[in-house]
């Protein structure tokens, strides 16, 4: 079976997860942070109150009537004001609770106000108090959220609220304005007052992505805006007015949505041109990699103790990779704070420190692998990349910290091999799917270069699901399921166990299976085999019980496909706006044997089916019976993962046809139970 790969989507994109943008000055600016100057609200119009459907967005659950964000880096605040019309129950659910993220310790949310206006004009003010909850804690960074519930929200209400994010006087946080929201926006205003570096005579200093001291002497911005919309720059700062902004289409298997959204990114920088910036930052990054990964005597001694003189290049790399995989990866356990590391007298300056401490971050472990490979005589390089499930590299936004992950490249016999040692349990010579088919920057012998990381192939991700089942005459089902996984699925479950525990992983696996097998069937995972052995397939064993089939008279109807009986076909929507990212290519095969009890016979089986989508995908299903056993075989293979929206009709047609076949039934006949007939009594003469 052969598949061709389509060209990966390469487009300017932005990192959309929570990120700090900050600098501090050599002179502290002491300023009072005022609350909103005018505690007035917008009077709704009769048309807004009466609105039940928005002609500009007929299917919208809610719409922004107005949204405003004002940021002032001189006074250290970010204000948000929103007016939202609730049109459906879904909109009510979406906007009844407001959650505002912020970084604890350096910023806070204050001046929270709000009110709900019913369709009849009744006003219900917000009188509650927001509460704080922790979202993420990693090392010294703690992301929090202020959460509050709007009062008495109803379909037809207008929700109106405002708040202010206050940040420390010594920090500056130029804004990242997201112009597109989850629902249609009628009008929006964005305003930014940057620090006037020339007038204040202040020097903005901070740390770059490599921990170096930097000085920012200019303000830059990156606009991704609707056609015809311009940013206005004036003495009072920067202004942006927008009208009738469509929502970000929330569609299954989309690339990072914020990578395609309208947005405006401000940042302080010392960069003059994009070309020079990426060249100079690449040089600094490469220098830091080489410093950290320099094969010291300790690393050379460690490698000498791992390798044997007779080892081939492949054996050497496999041994080094296996050794690196034994180091605790804090991405999957817990990143320690600086104070904890100090208390334990731990330091992280070189790869030798990581090896000695047997603990490091994902990037540090990747650099450790590079160091050991170099010590073994290989030409080994680092590559900096984004995570495809979160972001794509935006070359127009001059910020190296977009490149949040490190992978390794080792030249073996003149050919580059790619490794992902920072992803615990990732297979030797493979990348986690989120690091495949996307723009990255790599080291070369002469500096750095932009590359597209290699795509995975479907042979890398194979799943075999087998079931040995027995059905009794009364419909009771017993049996065993065995699922063998390699590649992305095996990595997913191995890492899930690292982040939680094996018992929780069993529960989660049961839930995944339970949602797909037929009604009445109960699955219970008994054990995993090969959880910590990335060099072999991961095996999951589960017991099957419950009941199977629907009886109608003398017939019993069974789902012909056991593992996909209740799975919903992908891509139910008839239209598509976003490109499609199916994460990774794969081949999945099912083999199911169902032994029937006496009294049950096969009346009919579904016809075999083949659904091709040349040259990118294939689906096959076949059914047979021998003696008292029904046999099902199903195969689905996908050879590409990234599709343009124009390819969607063909892709949807493939999965819809496969899903229709998965819903076929086989029919059994039930024989009437044998009964004994009394012998006829003779008539006396």
Can you put this structure into words, describing what you see?
- The protein has 685 residues and is of the alpha+beta class.
- It folds into three domains: 24-270, Immunoglobulin-like; 276-455, C8orf32 fold (Roll); 459-573 and 580-670, Jelly Rolls (Sandwich), CATH 2.60.120.1130.
- Helix content is 18%, strand content 36%.
- It contains twelve helices and 38 strands.
- A hairpin with a 2-residue loop joins strand 29 (550-552) and strand 30.
- The longest helix is centred in the middle third of the chain and has 20 residues, at 274-293.
- The termini are far apart.
- The model is unreliable at 1-38 and 679-685 (pLDDT under 50).
Task: Please give a handful of descriptors for the protein shown.
disordered N terminus, eight-stranded mixed β-sheet, C8orf32 fold, 685 residues, 12 helices, Immunoglobulin-like, alpha+beta, Jelly Rolls
């Amino acid at each position: 079976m052969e598949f061709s790969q389509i060209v990966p989507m390469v487009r300017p994109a932005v990192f959309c997860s929570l990120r700090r943008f900050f600098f501090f000055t050599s002179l502290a600016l002491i300023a009072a942070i005022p609350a909103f100057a005018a505690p007035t609200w917008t009077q709704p119009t009769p048309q807004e109150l009466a609105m039940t459907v928005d002609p500009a967005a007929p299917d919208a659950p809610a719409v922004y009537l107005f949204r405003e964000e004002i940021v002032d880096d001189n006074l250290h605040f970010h204000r948000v004001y929103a007016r939202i019309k609730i049109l459906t129950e879904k909109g009510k659910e979406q906007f009844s609770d407001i959650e505002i993220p912020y970084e604890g310790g350096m910023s806070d949310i204050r001046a929270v106000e709000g009110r709900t206006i019913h369709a009849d004009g009744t006003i219900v003010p917000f009188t509650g108090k927001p509460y704080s909850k922790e979202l993420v804690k990693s090392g010294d960074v703690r992301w929090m959220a202020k959460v509050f519930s709007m009062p008495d929200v109803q379909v037809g209400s207008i929700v109106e609220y405002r708040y202010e994010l206050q940040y420390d006087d010594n920090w500056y946080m130029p804004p990242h304005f997201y112009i597109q929201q989850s629902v249609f926006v009628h009008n929006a205003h964005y305003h930014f007052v940057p620090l006037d570096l020339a007038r204040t005579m202040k020097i903005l200093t901070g740390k770059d992505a490599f921990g170096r001291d930097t000085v920012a002497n200019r303000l830059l911005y990156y606009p991704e805006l609707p056609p015809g919309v311009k940013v206005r720059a004036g003495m009072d700062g920067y202004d942006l007015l927008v009208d009738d902004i469509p929502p970000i289409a929330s569609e299954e298997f989309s690339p990072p949505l914020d990578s395609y959204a309208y947005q405006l990114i401000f940042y302080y920088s010392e960069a003059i041109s994009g070309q020079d910036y990426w060249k100079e930052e690449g040089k600094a990054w490469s220098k830091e990699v080489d410093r950290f990964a320099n094969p010291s005597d300790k690393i050379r001694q460690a490698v000498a103790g791992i390798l044997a003189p007779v080892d081939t290049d492949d054996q050497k790399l496999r041994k080094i990779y296996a050794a690196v995989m034994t180091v605790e990866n804090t991405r999957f356990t817990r990143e320690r704070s600086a104070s904890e590391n100090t208390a334990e007298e731990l330091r992280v300056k070189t790869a030798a420190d990581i090896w000695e401490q047997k603990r490091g971050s994902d990037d540090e472990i990747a650099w450790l692998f590079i160091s050991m490979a170099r010590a073994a005589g290989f030409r080994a390089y680092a590559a900096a990349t984004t995570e495809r499930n979160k972001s794509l590299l935006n070359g127009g936004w001059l910020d190296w910290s977009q490149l949040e992950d490190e992978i390794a490249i080792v030249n073996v016999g003149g050919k580059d091999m790619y490794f992902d040692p920072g992803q615990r349990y990732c297979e030797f010579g493979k990348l986690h799917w989120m690091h495949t088919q996307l723009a990255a920057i790599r080291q070369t012998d002469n500096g750095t270069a932009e590359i597209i990381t290699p795509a995975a192939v479907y042979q890398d991700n194979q799943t075999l699901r087998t079931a040995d089942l027995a059905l009794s005459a009364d419909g009771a089902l017993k049996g065993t399921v065995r699922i063998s996984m390699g590649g992305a699925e095996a990595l997913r479950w191995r890492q899930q166990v690292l982040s939680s525990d094996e018992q929780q992983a069993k529960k989660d696996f049961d839930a995944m299976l339970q949602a797909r097998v037929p009604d009445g069937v109960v699955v219970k995972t008994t054990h995993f085999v090969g959880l910590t052995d990335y060099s072999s397939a991961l095996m999951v064993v589960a017991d099957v019980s419950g009941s199977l089939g629907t009886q109608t008279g003398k017939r019993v109807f069974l789902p012909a496909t056991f593992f996909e009986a209740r799975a919903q076909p992908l891509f139910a929507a008839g239209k598509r706006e976003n490109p499609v990212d199916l994460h990774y290519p794969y081949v999945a095969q099912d083999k199911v044997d169902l032994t029937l009890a006496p009294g049950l016979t096969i009346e009919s089986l579904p016809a075999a089916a083949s659904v091709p989508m040349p040259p990118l995908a294939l689906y096959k299903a076949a059914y047979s019976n021998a003696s008292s056993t029904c046999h099902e075989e199903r195969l689905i293979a996908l050879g590409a993962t990234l599709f343009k929206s124009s390819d969607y009709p063909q892709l949807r047609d493939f999965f819809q046809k496969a899903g229709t076949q998965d819903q076929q039934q086989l029919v059994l006949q039930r024989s009437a139970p044998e009964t004994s007939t009394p012998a006829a009594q003779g008539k006396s003469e």
